[in-house]
Structures are given as C-alpha cells and as structure tokens.
Amino acid sequence: MNQPLVTFRNVQKRFGSFVAVRDLTLDIHEGEFLAIMGSSGCGKTTTLRMLAGLDSPSSGEIRIGGKLMNEVPPHARDTPLVWQSLALFPFLTARENVEFGLKMRGVGAAARKRRALDWLERMQIGEFAERNVATLSGGQKQRVALARALVMEPRMLLLDEPLSALDANLVIRMQAVLTRLQKELGITFVYVTHSQSEAFAMADRVVIMSQGDLAQVGTPKDIYRAPANRFVAEFVGRNNILSGNVAAIEGDLLIIDTPTGRFTANAPAGGRGIGQAASFVVSADLVTLGTAPPQTPNRVAATLISEEFVGSMVTLFLESGDGHEFKVQMQERHLDKLELGSDARVWLSWEPKNAHVLDEPLSP
Ligand SMILES: Nc1ncnc2c1ncn2[C@@H]1O[C@H](COP(=O)(O)OP(=O)(O)OP(=O)(O)O)[C@@H](O)[C@H]1O
C-alpha cells in the first residue's frame, strides 16, 4: 500500500493532568473515508483538532504527507474543519460565505460566483444563495459550511458531527451526497460522529475510541462481526456476549463452558489455555430462531420477552433459563411465519464460525 496520508505515532494529549488521548497510533490513507466514533468525552474531537492544528500533541508525532505537523498552525494546513458550531460570517450571504476562501486565493469574481453556486446546489440549498446566513436554519447553515469547505477542494476534510442539526430524512439524503462526493473528488474525509448508523453507512473504516484509547480500527463489517474486545462488542450493541472458561481446544475452535451452557466458538488468534476465562460474541442477525430443537452444538432454549420493530427488521429480546438476555434480529416477514405467541418458548442456535472469541478487555 502507498505511504499513508496521515500518521499518528504514539500521540498523547493532556490538558493539565487529564489525559484526553493516551497513546494514539493510527494511519489514514489518501482518499479514504474514516469515521471516528465513541461515547461522549472519549477524545474524538481532540483527535480531530490535533489534525486541524487547533491543538498540538503533548507528545508523539502527527505527520501529513510525511511532514511533521505537530506545531504547524491551522492556516498553514490544507485541512479545513467543519464542525457543529460553525463559524460562518453572519453579515454575508450564503454565496458570499462560500466564495470567501476563493476570494482570499485570488479567484476572479465570475468564477468564484459560479463555483459557489454550484456547491450550494450540490448541497441542495441553491435557493438560499442570496440570503443572509443569519436568517438560515441550523441545518441550512451546516450545509453552507460544508459548501464553503468543499469549494476549496481540499486534500482532506475534517468533519465534526456535520449532520447533527438536520432532521432524519435530510441526514439520509446528505449522507448519500457526502459519500458520493467523497468518492468522486477523492478527498480524504475524517468524520467524527456519535451515530453508529452514520459511521457504518458512510465510512470505509471506523475508529472506535474509549476514554482516550483506540479500542479498534477496521471496516464496519470487521467491527460488527469481529469486535476486538468487550468494549467494542457492547458499544456496537447488536451483539450477544457470553463468558465462561475454556473446557477444550480443537484447532481454531474453543469449547467454552458458560452459565448458559457449553458452546463452540471460533478463535483463529488462539492464545487461550484450558481453564482460562474466555468470552465470545454472536451478532444478533447470525442467531437462528426456531421452534424445534436444532441439531447443532450451539443451541439454547429461550423465552420471548419483547420485540422491537425498525422498518422491516425486528429485534427480539429473549431470556435463557439462567436469565441471560439474547437478541435476535430478523426480517419481520420471517417472524410472521413462525407465529409465536407472547412468552413463546423457542430454540436459538448459531454456527461455531459465527461465534467470535474476544481478545482480552481493554486495560482499565
Ligand atoms: N481545552 C480543554 N481543557 C480541558 N479538558 C479538555 C479540553 N478539551 C477537551 N477536554 C477534555 O478531554 C476529553 C475529551 O474531549 P473531546 O472533546 O475530545 O471528546 P469527544 O469524544 O469529542 O466528546 P463529545 O462526543 O462529547 O464531543 C473530555 O473529557 C473533555 O472534557
């Protein structure tokens, strides 16, 4: 692979004695869409601000295109940041705001106007071009800010919750606009968000942070199917997590005794001995639900507790005899065929290859 566009090497950021980012080592590749996720206060914005030059690392190195950037100020970088409380010029129109950077670069009036209007159109706010930005709604302002950053055609764009002021329908539309533009223009996007659906829908790779640490980086599929640790497995949500002790090892498979039963799980990384603690996850959409006992080693009898519908998908919440909660996700039409009553007794099962053994938990 080519040289990464951005490298963080053992980057730490302290505010007084508080450590906001502990020891971040991460590569960002040219043209990729990288999302940074994690719960509030985990260090996402601090990471982005260090990349924008608004904060400098307390130790470690940040390089862009191989060049050390630790002390390079924001205006000397090609890394515009679009964030929630956007700094638009309130006394200018939407178009003038978008034109501003081009004017600073000496682009002529006619070309500036054409490019600004083009970007406002792409952001679906062309009709507001001549309105003073102070009179626009929060969501409209956010799109002016996006147009203002994109019109400069930067090599990399940093975005901090850029869609947070938009309603749900507009979020979906803007997600499609942004991902298409990102691929068309080949701009590297670093995108901070709270929203898992947003990160998983848009990003090529997702970084999950926890209290200043990088918990996992990978494709959305990797993170969903093979969470590296318990924090990520719980953060991603739609996972069943079971814990116990290793009873036997058969090649890449571990036989694990848990309070809910004995199960076979996949542990290609190995590294566990008999008697050691081990946890595994099975995603909710990889659990099969049936009314007859299945002929597989990984099976549990469970009682249906509740159902949650989102669109055509349903998540079932169930409980095994020992009180462990299971989640099963399926298409609503499949559920209808099963004709389950309330408190129905059912069987859950999953293939050993879909039970993924977790690495050790993150250090406390
Ligand atoms: N200038 C500062 N001085 C002191 N502490 C700070 C400063 N900036 C950030 N922090 C602290 O560092 C931690 C990480 O903050 P950061 O803004 O990176 O979190 P975040 O993951 O973006 O959170 P959120 O999702 O809530 O925006 C927080 O505990 C925050 O209070």
TrEMBL record:
Gene3D superfamilies, sorted: 2.40.50.100, P-loop containing nucleotide triphosphate hydrolases
Keyword field: ATP-binding, Nucleotide-binding, Transport
Q: Does the keyword Flavoprotein apply?
A: no
| Molecular function per GO | ATP binding
Q: Does the keyword Aminoacyl-tRNA synthetase apply?
A: no
Q: Where is the ABC transporter domain?
A: 6-236
The family database entries (Pfam families) matched by this protein are listed as:
ABC_tran, TOBE_2
UniProt-listed PANTHER family: SPERMIDINE/PUTRESCINE IMPORT ATP-BINDING PROTEIN POTA (PTHR42781), SPERMIDINE_PUTRESCINE IMPORT ATP-BINDING PROTEIN POTA (PTHR42781:SF4)
Protein name as it appears in the record: ABC transporter ATP-binding protein
Q: Which organism is it from?
A: Sulfitobacter aestuarii
